[in-house]
Structure formats: C-alpha cells, structure tokens
Amino acid sequence: MNTDISQSAIAVVRRNTEDVQGKGDYNLFEQLFAQDFVDHTPQPGGTPDRQGALRLYKTLRSAFPDFHAVIHWQVADGDLVTTYKTYHGTHEGSFLGVAATGKKISFETVDAMRVRNGQIVEHWGVANLYKLMEQLGAVPMARA
To answer: In terms of CB atoms within 10 Å, which of 50, 63, 88, 120 comes out highest?
Structure first.
C-alpha cells in the first residue's frame, strides 16, 4: 500500500467534508470533483454524476444552513478512502418534503470515495436517513 497516495486521498476527502459540505465552498467542489465523477449510490431522485452530487450538497445546506460533519475516523486503501462521520444541523428549510421544523438533527454516514490525481472520481455511501426523518417527525420513533 502506498501511504503517500492514501494520505493525499484522505486529505482530499477531508477537505470535501469540512469545506465543501461544512462551509458551502462550491468553488472548491469544482476543484475536488472530477468531470467524470460517478456516484454509485445516489439519493432517491438524484443523478449519479457530478451535478447530482452538487445538487445534493446544495439541498442539504439549504435545508440545514449550519450543516457540518464530525469525522470519527478515516482509513484509506490506496486511493479509496472510507469515512465514518456524524452530520449535524438545524432544520431551517424543506427537506424530503418536510417543512422546516427548527429542530437540531444528527445522523451517521459511512462512505467511500476514490481519489485520483487529487480529485474525487467515485463515491459509495450509506446514510442513516431513517434516523434523520425520525428527528424531523416524518416517521414514527422506533421503540425498543
């Protein structure tokens, strides 16, 4: 395993999480995402390309203006970076058909991003959207 490649890839993914998702730096998005980017797990109604990822990021920031992540850990195998993180925000805009509630939310995500030549070229991810929707009151709270 080339640790230089892995460390560079982790830095790119971290910048995406902290600066693009967390601060809404869409100019940086243009630098970090390859033109031929493919999202293997787009959200419902989304597209599996670069524009689909940008729309999702903008939708999240519109619904949760203080949207940000706490990265718990990242590991890389060559150019493939896996991240476990918890997203946080305040629901101040419509999201998945739920009008703003003003509620604070948090939900976990695990994703993998492949980085080549300093750009994100592929993404796979799983987000705990059920937990998010519970917090917004869109689904009944789970009972033990």
So the answer is: 120
